Amino acid sequence: GGGGGHGGGGGGAAWGAGGGGGWGGGGGDWGGGWGSDYSNGGAAAAGAMMAMMMMKGAGKGGAWGWSDDGYGKWPKNGKKGGQIACMQAVDHLEPATDAEVEAFLAEHSVEEHAARRLRDLHPKQQTGVLKRGSMLDARDQTAVVVKRIADMQFVKAGDWVCPGCFDVQFSKNHVCRKCGAANPIGRPGHFEGELAAAEFIAPATTEEVEAFLAEHTVQEKASERLRALHPKLQGAVIKKGDLNDARDKTAVLLRRMMDVTLLKDGDWICPACYSHQYRKAKTCRKCQAPSPLAGQEEAPASITASAASKTDGLA
């Protein structure tokens, strides 16, 4: 804690391994405030087991310490790096509202300690829990929500939460293992490369995107991912044609989106048939249209030749 804003006090042992209780103890909305989830009595054994599995020991300090100015300070023996990694993993997500959290809890039967822990999460982490879907089919809804909360809180530096399906991904994953969505935080400069490849593609309008989705029956995760793309990349996906002949429309759409988000520097998207082309290709492999980048690559050479000619004349 101690970060200002919502940073709470420090103190207790993680997951209630005795004494001050679970999840950092102390007060504050997001800094601590998980005081006695599994402490003492018969629940102490559960707390100890979770501590062994999740944290391999008791942690001190007051959790988030979050404020409008950024992250607060943790004690020297706290897990500052881990807490920052947790927030970086969800930084691109929209924060959940109190109303959304309460609606989710009203829909499901979870024990009070799990409900309290969900309320005490940072709003962006709450989104990572809520948007993973309904738990109505789960035999033990409390266990499921506790697992989801743990997924949001125990991530390593560079790990990320998928903006498409909200599954937790390792830092090495360039795309989500579950739905194919691109890593939104782990590839510096890559987004600029994607847009450079689609420089000559007309951006899609919101109306065009919605009309395309209305025409085809695809899973919601695919619809949300298409809506989240840059308009130029949306244009490249939509203008490749309809999905009416596809047996699995969702799979085809996900594949198209993966194609436009896994481009290397210098790759380009054909402005005629919208297929992905490698940098070395001077014409489209599919429709033979010339690369729109060819003129740009040749310009420096022609300028150099012109300059050399003038130099020769002076000599």
UniProtKB/TrEMBL annotation:
<keyword id="KW-0479">Metal-binding</keyword>
<keyword id="KW-0862">Zinc</keyword>
<feature type="domain" description="RanBP2-type">
    <location>
        <begin position="156"/>
        <end position="185"/>
    </location>
</feature>
<feature type="region of interest" description="Disordered">
    <location>
        <begin position="291"/>
        <end position="315"/>
    </location>
</feature>
<protein>
    <recommendedName>
        <fullName>RanBP2-type domain-containing protein</fullName>
    </recommendedName>
</protein>
<dbReference type="GO" id="GO:0008270">
    <property type="term" value="F:zinc ion binding"/>
</dbReference>
<dbReference type="GO" id="GO:0003729">
    <property type="term" value="F:mRNA binding"/>
</dbReference>
<dbReference type="InterPro" id="IPR001876">
    <property type="entry name" value="Znf_RanBP2"/>
</dbReference>
<keyword id="KW-0863">Zinc-finger</keyword>
<feature type="domain" description="RanBP2-type">
    <location>
        <begin position="264"/>
        <end position="293"/>
    </location>
</feature>
